[in-house]
Specification:
217 residues; alpha/beta; Rossmann fold; Arc Repressor Mutant, subunit A; six-stranded parallel β-sheet; 13% strand
C-alpha cells in the first residue's frame, strides 16, 4: 500500500520535529520534507509533490495562507491542512478562500491530527471544534430565510443529501441512512455540483457552508 506523503512547514523547529516524529511512527505516513518558511516549503513542494501539506500560518516571509495559494497554482489536487495556534474570522476567511482542506489548532490531540490527515485524503474536510463554531457563527448565524436555497433550484432531497455530505458521510453511508441506493446518491451529488457550479466535493462543502445552505455542528 502506498504511503501518504506529507510535507510539514512550521518555523518552530521543536514543534516541527514533534509532528514529524509522531506522524512517521504511523505505517501509512511518509514525511518527504520539512520547511521553516513559506518559500522553503514551496521549493520542497516542487521537488517532492506530496499528497498533503501541513502549514502553519505564522511563518517568516510568505505566511501559510500565501503559501497555500501558491501551492494551488502548481497542483490543485494537493491537500492542504492548516495547523495553527490562532484562529479568528479573518484567518478563517482567508484560509477558506485559499481552498484549504482543513484547519486544526495546535492543541489538537495527536490522534486527531492523524485522523484528520486520513480523512482529508478521502475527500473530507476537517476542522477543530472552535473553528467549526466560528464557521457557524460567521456563516450560519446570519439572518436565515426558509427558502435560502430556493434560488439554486435545490430540491428537498438534494438539500438533505448536501447536509449529509457536509457532515462527512460517504455515498454508501448516506444511502443506508436515507434508504436509497449509492447510485442515486451519486446522481443527486452530481446534480448539486452542476447546480452550484463546483467541480469537486471540497468545493461543494465549502460553497454550502459559505452560502448558508447547511448547518454545521
Amino acid at each position: 500500500m502506498a504511503k501518504i506523503s506529507v510535507l510539514i512547514a512550521d518555523d518552530h523547529e521543536i514543534l516541527r520535529f514533534g509532528i514529524s516524529t509522531y506522524l512517521s511512527s504511523s505505517k501509512d505516513i511518509e514525511i518527504v520534507g520539512e520547511a521553516s518558511t513559506g518559500e522553503e516549503c514551496i521549493k520542497l513542494f516542487r521537488e517532492t509533490h506530496p499528497d498533503i501539506c501541513i502549514l502553519d500560518i505564522d511563518m517568516p516571509g510568505k505566511n501559510g495562507i500565501e503559501t497555500a495559494k501558491e501551492i494551488r497554482t502548481f497542483k490543485q489536487e494537493t491537500k492542504i491542512l492548516i495547523l495553527s495556534m490562532h484562529i479568528n474570522k479573518n484567518m478563517l476567511r482567508d484560509a477558506l478562500e485559499a481552498n484549504v482542506n482543513g484547519y486544526l489548532l495546535k492543541n489538537t490531540e495527536k490522534a486527531d491530527l492523524l485522523h484528520g490527515i486520513r480523512a482529508i485524503l478521502k475527500g473530507q474536510q476537517v476542522f477543530s471544534d472552535p473553528i467549526s463554531d466560528l464557521m457557524k457563527e460567521s456563516f450560519l448565524n446570519k439572518s436565515n430565510h426558509p427558502g435560502s436555497y430556493d434560488h439554486h433550484n435545490i430540491t428537498g432531497r438534494e438539500q438533505e443529501i448536501l447536509q449529509l455530505i457536509v457532515d462527512g458521510l460517504t455515498s454508501k453511508q448516506i444511502a443506508e441512512k436515507l434508504y436509497i441506493s449509492p447510485r442515486t446518491v451519486d446522481t443527486h451529488r452530481a446534480n448539486l455540483m452542476e447546480k452550484l457550479e463546483v467541480n469537486n466535493i471540497a468545493d461543494l462543502v465549502r460553497y454550502a457552508i459559505q452560502n448558508n445552505l447547511v448547518s454545521v455542528d
